[in-house]
Amino acid sequence: MLFNSFQFAFFLAIVLLAYQCASQRRRNLLLLIASLVFYSLWVPQYLLLLLADLMVNYLLLRAMIASRRPRKYQVASCVVSLGVLGYYKYAGFFVSQVNGLLATLASITLPVPEIFLPLGISFFTFQMMALTIDVYRGELEPVESFREYVLFIMFFPQLIAGPILRGGQFLPQLRRGGIQTWERAHRGIWLIVGGLVKKVIFADALLAPYANRVFGSPGFASAPEHLIGIYSFAFQIYFDFSGYTDIARGIGLLMGFELPLNFKEPYLSRNPVEFWRRWHITLSTWLRDYLYIPLGGNRRGARRTYLNLMLTMLLGGLWHGAGWNFVIWGGFHGLLLALHRLWRHEPAVVDERVRWKDLPRIVLVFHAVCSLWIFFRAATFGDAVAIIGKLLSGDYTRVWPVFQSGVILLCALLHFLERAVRLNFSRILAAFDGLWGAAAEGALAGAIAGLVALLGGVGGEFIYFQF
After folding, report:
1. CA triple 417-255-146, angle to 5 deg
2. pLDDT, tens digit, for every residue of 382-432?
3. Considering 280, 320, 333, 340, which one is annotated as catalytic?
4. How far apart are CA 329 and CA 467, in angstroms?
5. Are 430 and 190 spatial neighbours (Cβ–Cβ below 8 Å)?
6. What share of the chain is helix, strand, coil (3-state, %, to 5)?
7. Burial classification of residue 329, based on how many CB atoms lie within 10 Å of its CB (0-12 exposed, 13-18 middle, 19 or more buried)
8. 375 and 234 in contact (C-beta within 8 Å)?
9. Are 160 and 119 in contact (CB under 8 A)?
10. Does the pLDDT value for residue 459 go beyond 60?
11. Is the pLDDT of residue 280 over 80?
12. Chain centre to alpha carbon of residue 392
């Protein structure tokens, strides 16, 4: 069930109604059942895979807690988690690469396994690993039961595409139970509405068709069309992914839970470090805390720091998909981070107000990010080269796509205003105070919901479902 489907709306309505009727002590059990049903409605047999993965990791976690040599159980848990992820996500890619090598040495071809990727496997694998590592480090109290462990991993709003939860963030909330307030419900409703607008109207209806046309035939359209196509994908993936996160956070708020912010207007970043503190925040902090810092971070000299940055981003790129384009994408982001550290070593102050004098740097970082989205979106390395070639050698005096250029400018304006809306959300809602204000707010939300429903058949899955 997609968040932008009528089936999910029906499912969510039933869950919320049952949640309201259930006693506080029964609500977590209800959420666990809802999460199991939600995942089983995708591919039922993969629910068994997920439960088996959870059972093995939970038993290793309990053994780690009880053992005098916990390290071996912590390592075993990570090996199991990465092993499952590696098989389902990378086995086909690995065999195809081996076949390419064998073709140059002998006439041997290994059968390439056709494996259907379990939804959310990259996200729940990292979540399981983080929980085990945090308990091993003594930074987190162990989970109290297998039921609590399963609910923490499988909480359905964020199960498929995050945000990646940490035990310290979410387990205390589960143990306390969701605290429902009118303010949280109000905020949650508007997060859901805003997320649907991002996904259905902008990502699917206005941006995806144009991006798909350009990337579907790389090198054939004009240079201006290629450039606007890249901009279209840049905003498509942002509105698509942040839209999912907004909906997930909104659903959590309706149940009384606070899920972490995953995006902070990433295209307003003034340097590469700031971009990764604004884009997919829960993944970038995961990579920092469980990969970059354990590798040595910046504590072992300049050369080791640059190596750690490159390794972290290369593996971060590979996490996104089994293909060399993702490795290239991650590698170039690592190179940008290393060059920034070498050149300016400027701290990234994410919450610092963006000023007009920052505009040149923002434009530069935005275009660096957009140029790397080419590798992320292109189906093959050859397609990426064809697009880059057209951008470098094309004729920019030809007619520009006027309508789509207007869409891009609108997206940029809305993105620029997101921070102001987010920071002044309570003040904006206060303008709807009173009976007439409530009626106006309801009418606005209803009109938006109607428009989303009207366009609901335009799009499909969220982009990050494939990861």
Report:
1. 120
2. 999 999 999 999 888 888 999 999 999 999 999 998 888 877 777 777 776
3. 320
4. 15
5. no
6. 75, 0, 25
7. buried
8. no
9. yes
10. no
11. yes
12. 31
Comparing C-alpha atoms, which of 374, 306, 388 is closest to residue 339?
306
Weakest-pLDDT range from 10-19, 87-96, 402-411: 87-96
Residue 100 CA to its chain's centroid (Å): 32
Q: What would the DSSP string read from start to end of 140-193? A: SPPPS-HHHHHHHHH-GGGTTT-PPPPHHHHHHHHHH-----HHHHHHHHHHHH
Task: Please give the Cα distance from 272 to 376 (Å, whole number).
Answer: 17
- Is 345 known to be catalytic? no
Per the document, the length of the chain is 467
Six-digit token string for 107: 């006439």
- Using left for φ > 0, alpha for ψ between -120 and 50, and beta otherwise, residue 252 falls in alpha
DSSP assignment of 108-146: --PPPP--PPPTTHHHHHHHHHHHHHHHHHTSSPPPS-H
Closest C-alpha among 224, 186, 203 to residue 3? 203
> Per the structure block, which two tokens stand in for 425?
């959300």
Q: Which two tokens stand for residue 122?
A: 């990259």
